[in-house]
Specification:
Helices cover 10% and strands 40% of the residues. It has 695 residues and is mainly β.
């Protein structure tokens, strides 16, 4: 019921009812206009036998409506009203374009007809090609066989040509889209990443907003859906399917049965902000932030400025659709100035956050401080104890060495163990947080939906102040992702990286573990074999890890290693090894504060009760060349080179800043005053001097 002949009034809430034998699973409830789908109404348990339908006052009057029920698990199991029923009191007849499929060749049965290849070398495959069966039909889209890169296909939909009037689009239309996605490996495995996206464009092709799906993230077909309110002025849709190539020779990003339609927005329920904004950026001229709402039938934005949030507004916003009640919005504020404070708030419909403030990244010579921790995962109370102590001592941003959640596939974990603790004293709303993924966070869809990290979001590097920070993904071993090893080798060898005052590397799974409950684990052998030699060869100053829930610090071959796994996970106390490099060890909850000022890095560690646990000072490998006396005596000039102990430096001279000749090579003493002084001749009319570390 209704089964034909009924007359219902717009604005009422009638009940759709049915009978079923051996009911199982859920049913999809659709409104049909004649024999064509007009609008999806919702889903209900089959055994529930009823669904309350609120009739949109603007639905449109006609006597040609029918209800159709479809089993979610068995789409062939279907029933519909035997005859049409009527709706009255809702104005003009409905535009039949609503609810109709708008995308052409969404199943790729006609190869890539109607699609434009933006990147990569995608292939259309069938079951005979060895990559599995299509979701439906005979063909599906594959990211490309041995492509060596990412894949993007795009299709634009002209909504006016599709039969919509401007008033249809500007008075509350909703875009609904779905696609079936698949990768090569099982859920949670480091793998290629496939997703799809719908952008809302104005009449001249500018993107006004966008919706993006979570990654497919599994070796079986997964249905991903998008839904969101069209901004007024939308005239076209741009649909993109994308495959990020991350492992193996083939880009195993697979897509099938992409569908897009427009629906009338009813009812309009204003969303609530369920997660306050989290800053995730490192730049002097921009700031990226994310926040979450429980609905997406609203327009989203960021109000911001130097002195007032009324100065500027940010658009477009991209929304990651997790499910029907979790929507993650991402915005980037651009055109900012270095070392400058700004205020902002986020908006979603009528909901708005409080006003927060942040400061952009410093110039190269400005001191800065970073808070570090790892493995907060299951005890947010500990992180709440650490946060006030971080703020008391002052930090500019936070670095986390993984395991923010206990179960990266759990929505509640991300809410309770990550976002909520970092809302305490507005830590993540006022200071950026950047992280390396841990094994508990995983490589699953939620881990990427709840982040807006740089680069490919797995490994990335950036300058902050005078230092270079490199984040790696220890879930992607060299055998699984040789691309990461190649990227790391190139990144460490870059002249710009070598010119940084300090080179800091962060990842989760540590190369050396002394304590581990349950025994047997002493660190990652492949990290020791593959990454550690690179750190030594390219003079990395500091490596920061988690995974073991304790604090360790030591140095070997010029590289300092620290384990900061005291963020809240159950502490490791069982001895499994005595790695000789470690000289400091504590099984206590803690965080670290790293302060960089010029050529000095100060590393301090404090327990959750405020107890100082460790302190070291590192000197930059970059030399400082100083005049001992600016007035030469007897045509000689003393030059002092200050640098890292036990490091050899070359002193050079030039008459034209082009050709350089060596004056001396000498190492800074391993102990004592970290400097060496040379006396040079000043008989030349003009001389330039420089010092550089030996390779």
């Amino acid at each position: 019921m209704p089964n034909g002949g009924e007359i219902w009034t717009a604005g009422s809430t009638p009940t759709v009812s049915w009978e079923a034998r051996n009911p199982a699973g859920w049913v999809q409830v659709d409104l049909m206009l004649g024999d064509a789908l007009y609008r999806g109404l919702g889903q209900a348990l089959m055994r529930q036998s009823n669904f309350v339908w609120s009739i949109d006052p603007r639905l449109g009057d006609t006597n040609a409506y029918r209800i159709r029920l479809t089993s979610i698990v068995d789409p062939a199991l279907q029933d519909a009203s035997d005859a049409a029923f009527s709706v009255t009191g809702s104005g003009v007849p409905p535009n039949p374009a609503f609810g109709q499929p708008l995308l052409l060749n969404g199943g790729f049965e006609s190869l890539t007809t109607h699609w434009e290849t933006i990147a990569g070398k995608p292939a259309i495959l069938g079951i005979a090609h060895g990559k599995g069966a299509p979701m439906a039909g005979a063909r599906f889209l594959h990211g490309g066989l041995s492509p060596g890169g990412d894949m993007v296909l795009s299709q634009e939909i002209d909504l006016l040509e599709a039969g919509f009037a401007a008033c249809d689009l500007d008075e509350g239309a909703v875009v609904e889209a779905e696609a079936w996605l698949r990768s090569a490996h099982a859920l949670g495995t480091y793998d290629d990443q496939v997703s799809f996206r719908v952008g809302c464009l104005d009449a001249i092709g500018r993107e006004m907003s966008a919706m993006r799906s979570m990654i497919g993230g599994d070796s079986t077909w997964v249905r991903r859906t998008l839904a969101g309110l069209l901004p007024p002025g939308t005239r076209r849709l741009r649909v993109e399917v994308a495959g990020r190539h991350r492992r193996d020779a083939d880009n195993d990003s697979m897509v099938d049965e992409v569908a897009v339609c427009l629906q009338r927005a009813w009812p309009i329920v204003q969303p609530k902000i369920t997660k306050l904004p989290m800053l995730q950026d490192f730049r002097q001229d921009a700031m990226t932030l994310i926040w979450e709402t429980d609905g997406n039938l609203a327009l989203h934005g960021v109000d911001w400025g130097r002195d007032s949030v009324s100065e500027r507004a940010c658009a477009p916003i991209e929304t990651v659709c997790i499910d029907g009640t979790h929507f993650v919005h991402c915005a980037t504020l651009a055109g900012l100035s270095p070392e400058t404070s700004y205020v902002y708030r986020v908006r979603s419909g009528s909901a708005a956050s409080p006003v927060f403030a942040f400061r952009t990244a410093p110039r190269r010579d400005t001191p800065f401080a970073v808070a570090w921790w790892a493995d907060s995962q299951s005890n947010p109370a500990i992180l709440r104890q650490l946060i006030p102590r971080m703020l008391e001592r002052g930090v500019d941003w936070m670095g986390v060495a993984g395991d923010m959640a206990s179960n990266g596939s759990s929505l509640s974990d991300w809410h309770n163990y990550w976002f909520t603790p970092l809302e305490f004293q507005n830590l993540a709303q006022t200071r950026p947080v950047l992280f390396a993924r841990g094994n508990h966070d995983g490589e699953g869809p939620l881990s990427y939906a709840y982040s807006a990290l740089p680069g490919n979001e797995s490994w990335f590097a950036f300058d902050y102040g005078n230092s270079r920070f490199i984040f790696l993904d220890s879930e992607a071993s060299t055998s699984a992702a040789p691309e990461q090893f190649a990227w790391l080798t190139s990144e460490l060898a870059r002249a710009e990286t070598q010119r940084a005052a300090f080179r800091i590397v962060c990842f989760h799974k540590l190369p050396y573990a002394n304590l581990w409950n349950g025994g047997g684990y002493t660190g990652e052998a492949w990290v020791r074999n593959d990454w550690v030699p690179l750190f030594q060869q390219h003079h990395v100053d500091l490596v920061i890890n988690g995974h073991a829930h304790n604090y360790n610090r030591g140095a070997t071959n010029g590289v300092t290693y620290v384990v900061v796994g005291g963020g809240g996970g159950e502490l490791d106390t069982e001895r499994v090894a005595r790695w000789p490099l470690f000289t400091v060890e504590h099984s206590l909850y803690h965080y670290a504060r790293m302060a960089v000022a010029g050529h000095t890095l100060t590393w301090e560690v404090f327990s959750n009760t405020g107890q100082p646990l460790d302190r070291i000072v590192l000197t930059s490998r970059l030399p400082l060349l100083e005049l001992e006396n600016p007035e030469p005596a007897a045509e000689t000039l003393p030059l002092t080179v200050r640098g890292k102990p036990d490091t050899a430096y070359i002193l050079e001279r030039s008459a034209d800043l082009s050709a350089w000749s060596m004056i001396a090579t000498q190492a800074i003493p391993a102990a004592g005053f970290p400097a060496i002084t040379h006396t040079v001749s000043t008989t030349a009319a003009q001389s330039f001097y420089r010092a550089r570390a030996t390779p």
